[in-house]
Amino acid sequence: MVIAEDNALLREGLVLLLRSAGHEVAAVAATGPEVLPLLLAHRPDAAVLDVRLPPGFRDEGLRAALAARERLPDLPVLVLSQYVEQTYAAELLGGGARGVGYLLKDRVGRVDDFLDALDRVVAGGTVLDPEVVTELMSRQRRGDPLAALTPREREVLRLMAEGHDNATIAAALVITERSVHKHIGNVFLKLGLPPTDTGHRRVRAVLAYLNA
C-alpha cells in the first residue's frame, strides 16, 4: 500500500491500521508532488489517498491518482475526503474504471467498514460512501436517465453504487435475491445497457447514476 495524507496523526493511524490488518505499507506521502513518483516507483496493490494535499489543499491527491491510473490502469485507488465532493467522485469513476472507492474520512474510524471497503477496491470493486451516494441522489437534474426508475430500483442502484453484492442488497432491503436480480435487470434495461455487456453493466449503471 501507498498512503498519502497530510495530517500526521491520521497518516500514522492509517499505517498502524493497515499493518495490523496484515498489509504492507510501502511508502507514505504528506504532499501532492510526492504521490505520483511513489506510486510509479512502488506500483502498490492499492493507494489510499487524501483528496486535498499540500501545497494547494485543493485536489492534489485526486490529480495524482488520475495521473497514476493513466500509467497504471489497474491500480486500485481508495480516496478519502473530509466532505462530499460530487465532481471528484464522478471524475474518479469516469471512463468505466474499476477498483476505485470514495469514502468520507470519518469512515476510517469504523475500522471494519474501512478495511472491508479497501478489500473490495483491491478486488476491483467500486465503493462509495453512503453519504456520497445520498448527496448525489439529491442533485439529480430534470431529464435524468434515472427518472424512469422506480423508487425500489433507485434503492437497489444506490446500494450497487456503494459496492454491495446482491445478497447484501437483499438483506438490506429485506427482499429475496431473486427480487434483487429482477430489479437490477430492470435498471439495466431502462438505462439501455445491453445483455452483451454483461461483464461491465454493473459498473456502467453506477457511472450513469453518478453522471446523473
TrEMBL record:
Transcription is among the record's keywords: yes
Modification 4-aspartylphosphate, positions: 50
SUPFAM superfamilies for the chain: C-terminal effector domain of the bipartite response regulators, CheY-like
Boundaries of every Response regulatory domain copy: 1-120
Highest taxon, organism lineage: Bacteria
HTH luxR-type domain location: 142-212
InterPro entries: CheY-like_superfamily, NreC/VraR/RcsB-like_REC, Sig_transdc_resp-reg_C-effctor, Sig_transdc_resp-reg_receiver, Tscrpt_reg_LuxR_C, WalR-like
Keyword list, A-Z: DNA-binding, Phosphoprotein, Transcription, Transcription regulation
Database matches in PANTHER family: TRANSCRIPTIONAL REGULATORY PROTEIN NARL-RELATED (PTHR43214:SF24), TWO-COMPONENT RESPONSE REGULATOR (PTHR43214)
Protein name: Response regulator transcription factor
Organism: Streptomyces cheonanensis
